[in-house]
Amino acid sequence: TVTIFWHRRDLRFDDNAGLYRAQKSVESNDSDTDNAVLPIFIFDREILDKLPEKADARVMFIRDNVQKLADHYREMGSDLRAFYGHPLDIWKALLDEYDVKAIYVNRDYEPYAIARDKAVADLIEARGGSFHHFKDQIVFESDEVQKKAGGPYTVFTPFFRTWKKNLAERMSTLPNGEPVSYYLKPYPNGEYTDRLLQTKDHQPVPTLDEMGFERADDFIPPDHVTTGLIKNYDKTRNYPNMEGTTRLSVHLRHGTISIREKVRKALALNDTFVKELVFRDFYSNILQSFPHVVDAPFRPEYADIPWRNDEAEFKLWCAGKTGVPIVDAGMRQLNESGWMHNRVRMIVASYLTKHLLIDWRWGEGYFADKLLDYELASNNGGWQWAAGCGTDAQPYFRIFNYDSQQKKFDAKYEYVKEWVPEYGTPDYPAEPLIEHKVGRERALDVYKTALTAA
Length: 454
Ligand code: FAD
Known about the structure:
The protein is α/β, with parallel strands linked by helices. It is built from 20 helices and 5 strands.
């Protein structure tokens, strides 16, 4: 028999809760000499077929990391099988091919993933096998960080307090990263990962390097660099012209690094940084407890804002041509590099939802297409925060003044000049799409009327 470990958002070998448990389960079952763990990965067509471009940088990131993982397994005397297709079809074939005793995974909290995992669990259970799932992607799940009186937190600060208290009490019970590799066995890997992913004309898709991603973002910053960044994080994190944040988001998104490992490290170095990592847990918890946020405001009274939704203005925002330098720089950074500084994500989101009165879901969707670190929970949380309809106490009448943001965080226009080369020349719009005061008044008026009516 075989136990299958299915890699998804956990593309690493070490400190991987589900993989660890899968190997432990096999180890404890000495009587079955044939017993071993088969690691697999599925390039999921349910997701890939919806992407506008097959050569999407995120798919390439995954492909490169699956390849690395496969190499690592080979060094351990094992092999990873990678597939391309619809997960249920692949699972049916796998259950026919092998005598599968159990499937092990790490939990994923997005609605699509929950439904998919349920279908796979049903499939193996119908054949007498078992499906095991573990927490790995975040530190605490929604039933672990609860108010004293019960129920999930909806405000970050008390959530953070309880989260930290939990951590102090339970840190030692988290998987310790011990590598257990004795029970991995090689399996014939008929299809090579590279050949699984092909463009329409059957050419292999390019690697990230070939696509010209300078920063490639497929490398994990060396430890000393991350340590230095985390140490100074509270002083540098708000300045988009500096290398002042860690750029770990894409790795946390795909699990190429372990959140537990980062938390352990951050605890000793910088509390502000810990707090940001906890924001990631917080938004995941919100998604788990309030799945309606996927396409509706967290606060229902915000459901009927009469968005202007001007398509021409939306296009200018997307292209970084609004005439507001810091907004344009942010959007161009996103378009050209697949990443945007957090401070600027807040500014562009505020500008779209408040000044232009465009539905936050339009902006959320655009970010989802473009961000290498795109993650449903954090992206949704960030957008709802900007639009004022989310969890945190950000009243709708607090509207970012983009001029003061510029002065405070990019006073010398270094960030702007890096991304908007024509800034300061006649080619750059002389006027913003909408002037701050006018936009502010209009937003206040529209929000207030809608909320009074709600
Ligand atoms: P650092 O500043 O070095 O932070 C370290 C890690 O902490 C990040 O990698 C991330 O995992 C986590 N983190 C930091 N800030 C936040 C936050 N506000 N919310 C949740 N997690 C956080 N983050 C995503 O990972 N995916 C998204 O799709 C995403 N969309 C966003 C949309 C909007 C409108 C806003 C305002 C924020 C969004 N964020 C998102 C959060 C944040 O901007 C990014 O996590 C951060 O910019 C990534 O860069 P970094 O790794 O250098 O971050």
